[in-house]
Design a protein that fits this description.
single chain; alpha+beta; six-stranded antiparallel beta sheet; 8 helices; elongated
Amino acid sequence: MQTIHFLGKVLPGSYNVTLEGLPKSHYTSPEFGLDVDIYLNIKNSSLDAECTMDCFDKEKFGHIYKIAFDLARASVNLLSFASGISLTVVFDKFVAPDGVSSPFAIVNTDLEKLCTAFSLKSTGPDSNMVRITHLLFKEPPLFMALDDLISGTTVHHQSSASCARAVEGLMNLIATPDMPRKKAWAKFRESLRIDENYILLITDYSKAARHGNREYVPGPIAGEIVRRAWAIMNRFFEFRMRGNQPLPITEFPVLVP
């Protein structure tokens, strides 16, 4: 048997929450070839998700993480429900079977490459980074759309609904008051140079989740939904910085599936 740990915190840590004696959870998935025992311990706002299996397979790391994160969130959500305190979970360390500990974060370099509207390396007063920051400060609906998008990558179960809400929020920022939705979507697509089918994957897969039906969205499709929403957000930033004029098609070829 081999054991790994996801270590983290329950925030805000100033409330110093403890939840011990939780039952061991067993998760089996023939589809992903998983058979894992998970024991969760929360003491003084420190969190340890101990995962034991016959043999740790790095190829299944993402699936194991999602299970451990779900169990941690479920337990902490009960604490929030009983106390009325808004609590959240963060994993920030991973302990391998050999006992070596390393920093932990979910990183997707493919998404990083889609951000071309600004660069973190350029933060001067006239940089696009600063210009977009001002846009977010002045336009709460834009901030909320970005927040929805990031939530879609932070909590995996929310990816389809959060990404769709983010894209629809951007559409509403381009549409004029009382514009029929069909025309509003057409104006949005024309302004950002996006094919209708490119957006449909995002909106279609969100319908069930938006109505409380938690049907499973396969990982590759969920990843593609996030990727497309990321690209659309990047184009919206370009649209705003160019004076809300339709993006030149010579620089921005139409986004197609």
